[in-house]
Amino acid sequence: MTIVGHLAAPLVLCLACSSTSRPSGGGTGGTPVEEPGPDAAAGRGGGAGRGGAAGADAAPDLPVTFDAGGNTDSAERPDQRPPTGAADLGRDLSAPEAGSSPGQALHDYVFSVECPNPGTSAECNVPDARRLKTSAPIVFGGDPAITYKVRLHFCGPVEGRKYSACKPGPFQNDSLLCVDGTPVPMSGGDQYVDTYPTYELKVSAPAHSYFVNSRDLRDTLMKIDYSADLEIRGGATLTFSTTSREQITFTSRKLNPPITCPGVPGLTQPFNGQFVHVTVLSVEPR
């Protein structure tokens, strides 16, 4: 018997902040549009510091959008998905509802880290309790004997993070998705790499870690807006997490105009922080 589920509404992961200025990182920072080389250890356009000022030839503050092919665009592309209504973010995610699609518990989920105080600043100071955060487990539905191909869409304003040893994974996906990689740690040659946040979706079976912001992008913000295929076994548990060494983080107002995504349940935009909005597009047995 073939089971195919299609869900048209979104899920969100969010990182937020406060309004103190971040210290100079000793570099010139970089522009938000230029693509770094794969081994770039410094910020885009030059300097190796977190929070450095933009270089003299920096591009204007326009949203950096990464499409499904990993290409950049200085303007937000129109969203082709239907708008969604508000979701009940207080629902029990420990188990899917009876008769629902296997991905229902994952659908319209919001993982957020918000600024401790209201504000309209381009950056903020996030306390450890929010900066080092793991979600409650989410149980994927379906048959435990079946592994599903699950297509998700990710949208949101995030900082990039550098990962190593990313694997191809079971499906061909956007380069912004790092499968089973490792966040690059601080070293003598790069003392700031771990000050940028990770965004990880961990699946228990088949066991995979999916990092959704794989880009060596320094001292600026980007908009991710891409779809990806994951493999998830029925009954598997999923968790979202974020971590970084730096308390200071950019908000969606870092770029002008601010980065926004359509149909994000439970969030006021422009958001005082960062988030990833995830839409479950389809679920089908492999």
3D structure, described in words:
With 286 residues, the chain is mainly β. The chain has a domain at 10-23 and 101-186 and 193-286. Helices cover 1% and strands 29% of the residues. The chain has 1 helix and 17 strands. It has one helix at residues 128-131, and strands at residues 10-16, 65-66, 72-73, 110-114, 123-125, 133-134, 138-139, 147-158, 163-164, 178-179, 182-183, 200-203, 208-211, 222-233, 237-242, 248-250, 273-285. It starts with 9 loop residues before the first strand and ends with a strand. Residues 14-49 and 51-91 have low confidence and may be disordered.
What is the element layout, followed by pairings?
Elements: E1 10-16, E2 65-66, E3 72-73, E4 110-114, E5 123-125, H1 128-131, E6 133-134, E7 138-139, E8 147-158, E9 163-164, E10 178-179, E11 182-183, E12 200-203, E13 208-211, E14 222-233, E15 237-242, E16 248-250, E17 273-285
Parallel strand pairs: 1-4, 2-14
Antiparallel strand pairs: 1-17, 2-3, 4-17, 5-16, 6-15, 7-15, 8-14, 8-17, 9-11, 10-13, 12-13, 12-15
Short summary of the structure?
The chain has 286 residues and is mostly beta strands. Helices cover 1% and strands 29% of the residues. Strands 1, 2, 3, 4, 8, 14 and 17 form a seven-stranded mixed sheet that branches.
Q: What overall form do the CA principal axes indicate? A: globular
Number of strands: 17
Using only C-alpha atoms, the radius of gyration works out to: 18 Å
Mean pLDDT equals: 75
Count of helical regions = 1
Describe the sheet with the most strands: 7 strands, mixed
Helix and strand element order: EEEEEHEEEEEEEEEEEE
Percent helix: under 10%
Q: Please report which band the strand proportion falls in: under 5%, 5-15%, 15-25%, 25-35%, 35-45% or over 45%.
A: 25-35%
Low-confidence stretches: 14-49, 51-91
Which structural class fits the helix and strand makeup?
mainly beta
Distance between the termini: 12 Å
